[in-house]
UniProtKB/TrEMBL annotation:
It is an enzyme of class 1 (oxidoreductase). The keyword Oxidoreductase applies. The keyword DNA-binding does not apply. NADP-dependent dehydrogenase with broad substrate specificity acting on 3-hydroxy acids. Catalyzes the NADP-dependent oxidation of L-allo-threonine to L-2-amino-3-keto-butyrate, which is spontaneously decarboxylated into aminoacetone. Also acts on D-threonine, L-serine, D-serine, D-3-hydroxyisobutyrate, L-3-hydroxyisobutyrate, D-glycerate and L-glycerate. Able to catalyze the reduction of the malonic semialdehyde to 3-hydroxypropionic acid. InterPro entries: KR_dom (IPR057326), NAD(P)-bd_dom_sf (IPR036291), Sc_DH/Rdtase_CS (IPR020904), SDR_fam (IPR002347). This is NADP-dependent 3-hydroxy acid dehydrogenase YdfG. Its EC number is 1.1.1.298, 1.1.1.381.
Length: 277
């Protein structure tokens, strides 16, 4: 099946619109590129406005889709509120309603918990968790109302979580891993709540991906098989979302790793994790 059929970017000629957070780099930029390629209009969100503007111009020219940018810090209430206002557009004014919200922006601060700066811990939770909850809480009622009004559009949310939340322990990634575990449980739960209204909520759990976030492990020489290409993360999650699936783990190596984590005794996982610190 072609990608265009998997995730249609138009409905009877009307362009679909996706809002992508963390679109200035890494996996979020890849979502922006792949969604524009599929014909989606875009709203791009991140702090670095100059990168968003350049990407908007490039994608607008390449694919002829409308691209808006919102340069904000999603770790702040004001930043989140600006994006919330855009997400609540319901098609009654000149703003296109958001068919797909991609909660991708995140930060991955690590290290021993006792060494982490309490303000930085708050900042990570504000971005990785609170922003995601507020943005999703803003868009879902609009999407549910659209479906109830017989709008046949494919609508919903994709949240980029991580396999870092799946092991029973994650020394060196305690807060980051817990923030992702939170997202996975929350997203799966909301998915079950809204499913009957025709809205799809999907969580994607990548392993390692070559982006700025993983420069450290890239420099330390993590083997090639440990990395899943960005475009596979995006492709697999869009396919899962289009198929109405609540959960996807891209990459056969990480599907296997997740299966193993679920059957290995917890004590053994703890011992292995301690050895890796
Ligand atoms: N790379 C990996 O191996 C994995 C990544 N993930 C998850 O994927 C997602 C994307 O990560 P990745 O692409 O690797 O990371 P990058 O560091 O490459 O990109 C992060 C993106 O988030 C944006 N961002 C960061 N802080 C803020 C903020 N306060 N407000 C708004 N935007 C912000 C950045 O833009 P700007 O700086 O312009 O604000 C950038 O666009 C994250 O949620 C991460 O946890 C999950 C598993 C594995
Ligand atoms: N951010 C990634 C690791 O650094 C992950 O979530 O696995």
């Amino acid at each position: 099946m072609s990608e265009a059929v998997d995730t249609p970017g138009t409905d009877r000629g009307r362009p679909r619109t996706a809002l992508v957070t963390g679109a200035s780099a890494g996996i979020g930029e890849e979502y922006a590129r792949r969604l524009a390629q599929r014909g989606y209009g875009l709203v791009l969100v991140a702090r670095r406005g100059e990168l968003l503007t350049a990407l908007a111009e490039e994608l607008g020219e390449l694919y002829g889709v409308p691209v808006e940018t919102i340069a904000v810090d999603l770790g702040t209430r004001e930043g989140v509120d600006r994006v919330v206002r855009r997400l609540t557009a319901d098609g009654t004014d000149d703003r296109a309603p958001i068919d797909l919200l991609v909660n991708n922006a995140g930060r991955g601060d690590g290290g021993p918990f006792v060494d982490q700066d309490p303000d930085e811990i708050d900042a990570m939770l504000d971005l990785n968790v609170r922003a995601v909850l507020h943005l999703t809480r803003a868009v879902l009622p609009v999407q549910i109302a659209r479906r109830a009004a017989d709008d046949k559009a494919k609508v919903g949310v994709i949240t980029v979580s991580s396999l870092a939340g799946e092991p029973v322990v994650n020394p060196g990634g305690s807060v980051y891993g817990a923030s992702k575990k939170f997202l996975t449980l929350w997203s799966e739960s909301v998915s079950a709540e809204v499913r009957s209204s025709g809205v799809t909520v999907t969580v994607v759990l990548p392993g390692f991906v070559r982006t700025d976030m993983t420069l450290g492990v890239q420099e330390r020489g993590l083997p090639e098989f440990a990395f899943v290409p960005k475009d596979h993360i995006v492709r697999d999650s869009l396919r899962a979302w289009a198929a109405g699936r609540p959960h996807v783990i891209p990459g056969p190596q990480y599907k296997t790793a997740d299966g193993l984590l679920k059957v290995l005794p917890r004590t053994l996982v703890r011992v292995l994790a301690r050895r890796m610190v």
